[in-house]
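Hi D.,

Good news: the full-assembly prediction came through. Inputs first.
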Amino acid sequence: MRIGTRHNRGGGFTLVEMMLTVALVALIYTLISTILIQIARYVKTGSVVARQRVKLLRSVEELRYQLRSLYYPSAQVGLMGKRSSTDGRDSLVFSTTNGRTHRGVVEACYQIQEYTDAEDPKKNGLALYYREFPFRRRELRTLEPYNEAAWEPYLKNVDIFECEYSVGGGVWQREWEALQPPQRVRVRIERSGENHDRIVFDVTPGIGAARW
Amino acid sequence: MKRASQETVSESRGFTLVEVLIALAVGAVAFGVVLHSVGLQMTLVANSVERHQMLMYASEALETALARGTLGEEEIEAPIDRSSRNSDEREAAPAFFYSIGAKPVTADPRVQQVSVTVKGRRGQVRLSAYRLRVRRNSEE
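Then the structure:
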């Protein structure tokens, strides 16, 4: 009996039913799209951060590799570390090999410098700069600008690059200018900002390029 | 005959409650899988630097231990302190601890397995290496 009455009534929905359905669909659509948009935003920022971190870790490994394969012929300065007047802006010069190209011995220099972006002034800030010379001269160059190799931004948004040097491991000094390279070098690289990354590592210079 | 026509009528009316529930459950499972993978990726990104830092500490500890060569069978546990002079207020408590120990391998007691575990705030990393202990002056 009930089936019959319903069937007789049919042929379409009432206005109330339609409005209810439309309202429900709109509500569900809004909810799901809000959630999906939020997820997409998270994934986007996450991938940007991930790319920055991959760059950071890769550069840290590169610096570690270069320090481990330090080249110091006797009676020449193999490693020179200087600190500037501002904390966290050290510079490091040493002769080593380039881990990416492996083209003989180069003189690698690391230093924190001001970075200016020509297109987007918002990206200005400090960056870790890098340059390398082919190893031709007998002595390490100083940090004055030379024409043959320009400083290149290596790691952007890095504002602390500190090095410490030690002979036995007990006493650490902030500068190194002796003839022999130190037995331990401690490098601290920090990036401030919303994702505060920092990495500290000790290296025994010249221990060899093999990694675990 | 009448029965058959009734069934077709009831089929054309819409979904049953069970069908709707099953569809909702399948949708929820798919959405949950997507959410889970997104969350996993974000955790990996968030922990990547600390994990790399722990790996570096572990590799340094392993290297020093292998170079020093004096390692007993008991596990040594120590905090890792890398605070420098001008940043010691930032590192009040050491965030990383490492433990190192060596034990002989069952197959050949001359071979030692040196293993390092570095514990951080959000997990730990374990590295190990093997070394062969051979006496220099073969008295035995």
